[in-house]
Specification:
- The chain is mainly β and about 160 residues long.
- It is about 15% helix and about 40% strand.
- The N and C termini lie far apart (about 60 Å).
- The N terminus is likely disordered.
């Protein structure tokens, strides 16, 4: 019997193997924070574009703490430079972010800059305490500004977010 023949499965065995693999993949890892659900939008992947590129993973666990975590990453910006992330929200949920009331994000109420390295890349883990208003929906958009000059270097499109319960 050849090695190839030894590796062949019967159709039923192959179906069972695929079903087990799909089930394990769907369950995902069993550790980590309880994110989600995704509908409505409790968690966002915010893309920032402009003079470089950025990404904000905007996450609220399924708990009663009303804290949103922001994992911020930027690249292709000026090297060895400090930047700030800001957000503006409006409660007229229509995918049209009209607010210009920018709030600088950080660690709780304390603004936190992100400083790029010699290649123009930087990363920072931030958080924000949300109002205890489960189900509150709003439009939200983000920008990154240079800390020293306040020049806008990255912006996002308009997203919708709902405070988790």
């Amino acid at each position: 019997m050849s090695k190839l023949t030894k590796l062949m499965f019967t159709p039923m065995a192959l179906v069972l193997l695929i079903a087990a693999s799909v089930s394990a993949f769907a369950q995902g890892p069993q550790s980590g924070p309880p994110w989600g659900p995704e509908t409505p939008y409790f968690n966002l992947e915010v893309v920032l574009r402009g003079e470089g590129f950025g990404l904000i993973k905007f996450r609220q666990p399924n708990d009663d703490a009303f804290i949103v975590y922001l994992d911020v990453w930027v690249r292709d910006l000026a090297p060895n430079t400090s930047y700030l992330r800001q957000r503006a929200v409006d409660t007229n949920v229509d995918d049209n972010c009209t607010s210009t009331a920018w709030l600088t994000l950080g660690r709780g109420l304390q603004p936190q800059s992100i400083t790029t390295d010699a290649t123009g890349t930087g990363r920072e883990k931030l958080f924000r305490i949300l109002p205890p208003s489960p189900g509150l929906e709003f439009d939200i958009h983000f920008r990154v500004i240079e800390e020293e000059t306040s020049a806008v270097v990255l912006t996002s499109k308009c997203y919708q977010f709902t405070i988790s319960q």
